[in-house]
Amino acid sequence: MNKIACFITRTNESTADAIRRGLDRSPLYTGKIRGVGPRYCPSIEDKIHRFPDKTSHQVFLEPEGMESNLIYPNGISTSLPLDVQEEYIHTIPGLERAVIVHPGYAVEYFFSNPQDLFPWLETKRIQGLFFAGQINGTSGYEEASAQGMIAGINAALKIKGEEPFILGREEAYIGVLIDDLVTKGVEEPYRLFTSSAEHRLLLRQDNADFRLMEHGYTLGLIPKEWKEEIVGWKRDMETLREELRRRVIVPKDSVRNIMNELDLGEISHPTPLLHILRRANMSARHLDRFDMDISRYHPRVLEQLEIETKYQGYIERQCKQIEEDKKADKRKIPADIDYAKLEGMRNEAREKFNRVKPATIGQAARIPGIFPSDVNVLWIHVMKMAKEQPAA
After folding, report:
1. For FRET with 26, which of 137, 213, 243, 256 sits at 20 to 30 Å CA-CA?
2. Using only C-alpha atoms, what is the Rg of the chain?
3. Cα separation, 214 vs 231, whole angstroms
């Protein structure tokens, strides 16, 4: 694969002085632009203004392409006038003779309140209208493309008269992203981080296909052979797991020599190989040292079994919590519920429920500012409505 080098330079005090002199001409500082910008992509004038004690800021010099002589200076986005941009760009080492081809400019985004969306990204106000991307208050290409995929899937399902597709928070980061948007809303451009997911130990890059391939196949997005390959890997994992559970090693000299060589510590009694795999320095590729034939297993099978074995306790704890959360997310809230008539609930909770219109008890519980007592009142009322509903 052809590669092209990127470079790093830094601003300095001369850069900062030029920017400070032009701040009174920046739309961000004169009030022409009032919107809140992305927290994690501030302009260079914002950096200079907010961090006056910092003497320099990093700038990534990124080539625009293999056949282009244009360089994108990542880290100095700006809304300053062109003459100020030309002044400060020439103070940066390596850019003294740079020519600005496309000046920096500011963009003010408008967005629709994502709390006006159902969890499948259809608007609550206009049936059949789906929103995805920055219009929902997000920032970042990954967030936009993830929403676009879910909105597209659900638009197609809507046309076919089928139930909407919703990814849970425990299934994928896309589920976390959309649930955060439609439940909590946004006060600034939203970015998705691993810390946003309470079940992030399960939402790993290495197991994405294991988690989501079945969904992809059901929706017609994944070929049958891909899905069957994953099914085969899962089956092989269980076969190997059971084999390691049954295979027991005993503390004899030949075993001790292998344990010492691999720095696996000691064993004082017969121990299943599955327990040995949990040890820090033990790898699935070392199983052949204990007369295990691992050549018949795909590398992905060995990788997944090793990860799941080493983190078994933590994974089981998260799975238990997920099962508890699912109970609340399975209890749907009728769309025609009248929150104003719910007795025993705080007015603030009524207002928030009425604004968000949560689809499930679980979503209702995740709305900021909602107390467990509010959820209990809602749960009781939903159960009462279900009992009063005439049998089909």
Report:
1. 137
2. 28
3. 9
- Residue 298: band (very low, low, confident or very high) from pLDDT cuts 50, 70, 90: very high
224-310 shares its CATH topology with 328-388: no
Residue with tokens 């990788």: 303
DSSP state of 123: B
- Are 165 and 218 in contact by the 8 Å Cβ rule? The answer is no
Q: Which residue is it, tokens 């360089």?
A: 71
For residue 166 the two structure tokens come to 């919703």
58 by Cβ neighbours in 10 Å (0-12 / 13-18 / 19+) ranks as exposed
**Both structure tokens of 159:** 């046309």
Domain ranges, ordered by start, for the chain: 7-89, 114-200, 224-310, 328-388
> Which residue is associated with the tokens 């939903």?
382
Per DSSP, the three-state class of 69 is: coil
Using DSSP's 3-state secondary structure scheme, residue 265 falls into: coil
pLDDT at 392 > cutoff 60: no
Comparing C-alpha atoms, which of 95, 80, 84 is closest to residue 11?
A: 95
Following CA atoms 249, 251, 255, 260 in sequence, which dihedral angle do they give, to the nearest 10 degrees?
120
- Please state, rounded to an integer, the average pLDDT across all residues of the chain: 91
Q: Answer yes or no: is pLDDT of 33 > 90.
A: no
Tell me the per-residue pLDDT of 211-237, one tens digit each, with 9 for 90 and over.
999 999 999 999 999 999 999 999 999
Cα separation, 169 vs 194, in Å, equals 12
Residue range 328-388 forms a domain whose CATH class is: mainly alpha
Write a three-state SS string for 315-344.
HHHHHHHHHHHHHHHHCECCCCCCHHHCCC
Q: Which CATH number does 224-310 carry?
A: 1.10.10.1800
Task: Let me know: does 170 contact 323? Beta carbons within 8 Å.
Answer: no
Contacts of 45 (CB under 8 A, 6+ apart): 19, 22, 23, 26, 28, 29, 78, 79, 80
Looking up tokens 């994108």 gives 72
Q: How many CB atoms lie within 10 A of CB 384?
A: 10
Secondary structure letter of residue 161 according to DSSP: T
| Cβ contact 95:76 at 8 Å | no
pTM: 0.79
* Pairwise CA distance, residues 276 & 59, whole Å: 48
Tokens found for residue 331: 């209890």
